[in-house]
Write a structure and sequence with these properties.
The complex is a heterodimer of chains A (251) and B (350).
Chain A: H1 3-21, H2 36-62, H3 89-98, H4 105-111, H5 131-134, E1 140-141, H6 144-153, E2 164-172, E3 181-187, E4 196-202, E5 213-220, E6 233-242
Parallel strand pairs in A: 1-2, 4-6
Antiparallel strand pairs in A: 2-3, 2-5, 3-4, 5-6
Helix pairs in contact in A: 1-2, 1-3
Chain B: H1 5-19, H2 34-57, H3 65-97, H4 101-107, H5 112-122, H6 130-142, H7 147-160, H8 162-171, H9 176-200, H10 219-251, H11 254-258, H12 264-278, H13 285-291, H14 297-306, H15 312-322, H16 324-349
Helix pairs in contact in B: 1-2, 3-6, 3-10, 5-7, 5-9, 6-7, 6-15, 7-9, 8-9, 8-13, 9-14, 9-16, 10-15, 12-14, 13-14, 14-16, 15-16
Classes of the chains: A alpha/beta (251), B mainly alpha (350).
Amino acid sequence: MNRIAQGLVLVLLGAAALGSSAFSELYLNYVQGAFRPFLIAAGAVLVLLGALVVAADLRAASRGEEGEEGHDCQGHDHHGGPRVAWLLVLPAVAVFVVAPPALGAYTAAASGAAAAPDSSRVDLSEYREDPFAEAGDGPVELQLQEFVSRAWTDEERSMSGRTIELTGFVVPHPEGEDEGWYLARLQMACCAADAVVNRVLITGEPAPETDSWWTVRGTWDEPEGDLQSVRDHRFTVEEMREVENPPDPYE
Amino acid sequence: MSDRPPGSSLGDSLVQDWAGPGELPPSDWGRPKGPRRTATVWLFALFITAMAAGNLWLSDRFTHEAFLAWATIFTAISLQALPFLVFGVALSAALTAFVPASFYRRVIPRNPVAAVPVAGLSGMVLPGCECASVPVAGGLMKRGIAPAAALTFLLAAPAINPVVLIATAVAFPGQPEVWIARLVASLGAAVVIGWIWARFGKSDWIRPPRAPHDPDAPKLRVFRDSMVHDLVHAGGFLVVGALAAATLNVAIPREWITGLADLPVVSVLVTAALAILLSICSEADAFVAASLNPFPPTALLAFMVVGPMVDIKLIALQAGTFGWGFVRRFVPLTLLVTLLSTFLIGALIL
C-alpha cells in the first residue's frame, strides 16, 4: 500500500465517521447519542490527516522527488502500509452502501427471554424517585427497561392497578400468533454490540406488523406468586397507537 | 457485502503488481513513482464512484435480516472503536514527537521489576478502552520504556481507568465490592503478567518498532507520520476484529449460554470465553455483565477482568502492532493469569 493510498483510505474512513454523525442521524443506529462529538472529532482528524499525507506526497511528486519518506527505509515496512490496511475501507462501505438499520425484531427474537435480575442488585430509584406520585392519577409513561425492572423486583408492586404507557417495536411470538406478541425495546450501554432486550407479552390484541413501533396504554398483569419466577411480563392493552419514526431506537 | 471485497482485493492486487516489495528496488534508488500515484488516484476515484452507485441502487436491496443485524453490529463496533483508536494513536504520536526520551527515564524506574507496578498504577489515568492503549504502549516502547512495563500499562489502562470503574459502580448499584474486586483483580493480573514478562520475556518476541526518527526532522512531520503509521497498522486489524466479533455476536444464541450458568467452574470459563468472543468495549462490559444475571458473581467478575485484557479485537490489534510472534506468547499467558486472578479475588471478595 503506497503513501497516497494510505492517505486516501484514511480520508474515506474519516468521511464514514463524519457522514454518519455530522451530516445525518445514522450514528444513532449504532452508538449512544452522547457519542456524537467524539465521532465528529475522530472523523475530522482522519480526513485532515489523510488529506495532509496526500498533499505531501503530491508535492513531493511535483518536485520530482521519490517522496519525503525515503529517509528511513531501513524500517520494517519500507513505508508501505500492510495489506490488511485495505480493510479500513469496509466501515466506509458499511456506512455509505449498506447503511444498516438499528437492531430490531430479528435480534430481539434471537436473544430470547432475559432472566430475572437479583433484586438486591437493582436500584429502582436510578430511574426516577417515584414516577407514580409525580403522575398523580393520570397515566404513567415508563421506559420498557424500567417497567421490566419493576415487574421483576418491586416487591411493593407500585405499578399495580396504574395506567402505564410503554413504547417499543413489535416482535412476533416464536410459537405463532395465537400465543400473542411482544412489545420490545433494546437497551444499549455503549454500542449496538452490547444491546440487551426488554420485552412485555401482549395477548389481547392482534399482532401488528413486525418491527413497527407502537405506544401502548394499559395495565400490568400482576402475577400471583413470586415476582422473580416470572418469565414473561404480561400487559393488558386498553389503547394503542402507531409511532412514526421514534427518535432514538435504543433506550 | 458480496459486491465490495472485490474492490479491496482488486486494489490490493493492482498495487501489489506495481509495488510488490519483492519486485520493487529499494526506495532510495529514487525511481520516479509518478505512474503508481496516478494509478492509485484512479483506483480510488473508481471505488468512490462504485460506492455512490451502490448507495443509489443497492442500499434498499439488503433485506436479509441476519445480514443486516451483522452489518449493524460490525458498523457499531467499528464506529465505537474509532474515536478511541484515533485518540490513542494521537497520544502515542505526541509521546513520540514532543516528549523527549529523557523524560521517561526520569519518571519510570530503570529497573523493570520496579517499573511494572508504576506502569500498572499509571493505567488509572488514561480514560480510554483497549483500542487506545495498544498504540500508546507501542509508543512507550519506542521511547525506550521496558516492554514489561509498557505491557502492564497496556493491560491495566482499559481495565481500571476511572470511566470503567464508575461504569461498573453504576451497573452494579449498592454493591461496591464488585468494582473493588474488578480493580484489585485487574491490577493484580496486569502487574503479575508484567513481572513474568520482565523475568522470562525476550526482546525479539516483539516486532521491533520502527527505527528511531531522524532527530532533525520537524516535530510536526514526525507526529503526522507516526499517526499514519499506527493507524494503517492497527486499523486494518481492528476491522478484522470487528468482523469476527460481529459474526460471533449474531451467531451465538444467548439462551444456549445461560443454560450453563449453574455449573461452578464451567460458568466462569463460559463468561470468560464470551468476553473474548464478543469483544465489548471495556467501558460498556459492566452493563452486559449485569445483564448476565443468572451467572454467579465470580463468573461476572471473569467477564469484566478477562474482557479488557484478552478479546478478539484486542488480539488483532496487538498482532498488527507487535506481530504474531508476540501474540502467540502473550495472549495465553494473559488469559491464564487473568483467570487465576479472577478465581482468587472472586473467592476473597465476592
